[in-house]
Amino acid sequence: MSPAEKRPPAERFSGSQVVVEGLVRTFGRRIALDGITARVAGGRITGLVGPDGAGKTTLLRLLCGLLTPTGGRVTVCGYDTAADADAIHERVGYMPQRFGLYEDLTVRENMDLYAELRSVPREERSARYAELLAFTGLGPFTGRLAGRLSGGMKQKLGLACTLLSRPPVLLLDEPGVGVDPLARRELWRMVRELLTPDRIVVWSTAYLDEAEACDTVLLLNEGRLLYDGTPKDLAKRVEGRVFLLGGAGGRRRKLIAPLMERKGTLDAVIQGSSVRVLTSDDGTELRGGLDALSREAEVFVEVEAEPSSRLALRPTPPRFEDAFMQLLGGARRGSGAVAEFFGEKGTGGVSVEARHLTKRFGSFTAVDDVSFSIGQGEIFGLLGPNGAGKSTTFKMMCGLLTPTEGGCAVSGLDFRTAPGAARAKLGYMAQKFSLYGDLTVLQNLRFFSGIYGLRDGAAVERVVETFDLGPYLSSRAGSLPLGFKQRLAMGCAVMHGPDVLFLDEPTSGVDPVTRREFWTCINSFALKGVTVMVTTHFMDEAEYCDRIALVYRGRTIASGPPDALKASVRTDERPDPTLEEAFIALIERQDAAGAAIPKP
Fold it and tell me: Do the Cβ atoms of 96 and 154 come closer than 8 Å?
């Protein structure tokens, strides 16, 4: 009998805690976790937050007994994870980062399999299935293959299978990755409903708005615990140091680079028509430099024949994301060197056009009469829930799918009449990693360089330098950490300097710091006149777009600048809506309008 089993039950389960004491975990010479000490209590959602490689997944695997500590100790509900592995496995439900179910089995078959694996008594299964299917809304889909579920439905199925044995400890490794805001809200609702004073929930996330919604957070970086407390208390640390810089209009992108060159700037990101700035002081230095910023971005007005800044700085409430960036030392101050691939594309004119695009698969209409045009040098966001038709639209725009009706053109070249010439004008980064996993990073780069006719090797060298791929050149692409897979895919998409760049969820699953780097590059592309069309489930990223089209059930239901979409849902109860709130409100408005139409 183990020491934990000898303890009285009241002592074993007192407080329903996870206790981590001096936890160390190494892999060879690499230190994944370095002396972590923390307590996780029941009755609340504890967020596990940090950049790629911070140690989040390693910590979760240690908590559920899949790994043993190199040093220190972990106890879960009084059981030692190293000495009492069987007891831990009985009490912990672990939902891994990647979809861990069988895509060629149906919803019901996956539940049957997990019920066997978790030793759920047969006489209890029917009632448990009915309860979980109703809870997740999967009741009508029990016969559907798991591989054919939307991203949100896959996560709900993963949660249902995890809950089959009613575990008192629930460990969720980035369950919101690749899931649209509507589905993520449903996941949060379901997990909140699961909370009891004795249930422990740990939610690992790369979404900082999710971290802000947690009751408490553990913030890791490079294997060390930087913060343990509430999101609100962390945000208070940067109160009075976060500002919105407005007045630049369409030239706001030109403010990012000079802002980040200032020592007093820790972070600068586009937020609608403004730039959100995190400073190391109370904004005094920034206020004194507005005229210089105006000249650099060519944002000024004439006052008595003298150029004067029309930039305006106003304080704004801090968010968890601001404090997160401050705690990590601010955004990385990299250059937009990849932009040197692009010659000046000029401005003006329509660069991308979709004309009444329709795509049917049998009797199912995935895209229904979608039309839009994108100006040269514009960043255009295509948003919508999972299954709305975004990726299908992308594939038609890239010439990978033939429209059932309608047409599309890139740089004036129609895919029906000049498909090869049109494809040569664009770069495409797919939603899922689509490079050659069995080739090394360098082999992939050389392969794509050859396809684009770039023979001198300079393009490869520039991609390696800009995306920091040097340490991974001999690594198989399929074995890269997710963030570096995305960097490699981006590098391959832009190395030939295309006129148009199509990015399908380019930062899904990537940490906030790396996402900043991606958008620094994307902004620099747009300043060169490159047209960018992007899909994303990060609403803060959608703020970077000049215009947005919101697609729902294959149709465009709203379009315009981010600030205009937010204004369209403003109410007395919601005077300053976020873009995520606008996203949800517009879809709910569309559902209500559809329900109000009388059926023939």
Answer: no
Angle between helices 151-162 and 122-136 (to 10 degrees): 150
Beta strands 216-221 and 45-49 are: parallel
Angle between helices 441-451 and 458-466 (to 10 degrees): 130
In the chain, the amino acid numbered 410 is V
Question: For 286-291, which contacts have Cβ atoms below 8 Å and span 24 or more sequence positions?
Answer: 286/243, 286/245, 286/262, 286/313, 287/313, 289/262
Spatial separation of the C-alpha atoms in residues 84 and 295, rounded to whole Å: 66
Residue 2: its pLDDT value, please? 38
Residue 480 parent element (H or E):
none
pLDDT of the residue at 3:
39
Query: pLDDT-based confidence at 366, cuts 50/70/90?
Result: very high
Rounded to whole angstroms, how far apart are CA atoms 35 and 497? 46
- C-alpha–C-alpha distance, residues 16 and 40, integer Å: 8
What number of CA atoms fall less than 13 Å from residue 528's CA on the CB side? 23
- Percent of the chain clearing pLDDT 90 (strictly above): 45
- Looking at residue 595, its pLDDT comes to 53
CA dihedral 452, 457, 459, 465 (to 10 degrees): 150
Going by pLDDT thresholds of 50, 70 and 90, the confidence category of residue 6 is very low
In 3D space, the residue among 435, 441, 370 whose CA is nearest the CA of residue 403 turns out to be 370
List, for residues 40-70, the tens digit of each pLDDT value.
999 999 999 988 778 999 999 999 999 999 9
**Closest C-alpha among 477, 479, 499 to residue 488:** 477
Is it the case that residue 402 has pLDDT exceeding 80?
yes
Q: 392 is written with which tokens?
A: 């299908």
Joined together, the tokens standing for residue 52 give 């790629």
Give the strands of the sheet with 242-246, arranged side by side.
Answer: 265-271, 274-279, 242-246, 312-315
Handedness of CA 185, 241, 519, 32 (dihedral sign): negative
- 433 and 489 in contact (C-beta within 8 Å)? yes
Confidence of residue 289 (pLDDT cuts 50, 70, 90): confident
Its pTM surpasses 0.70? yes
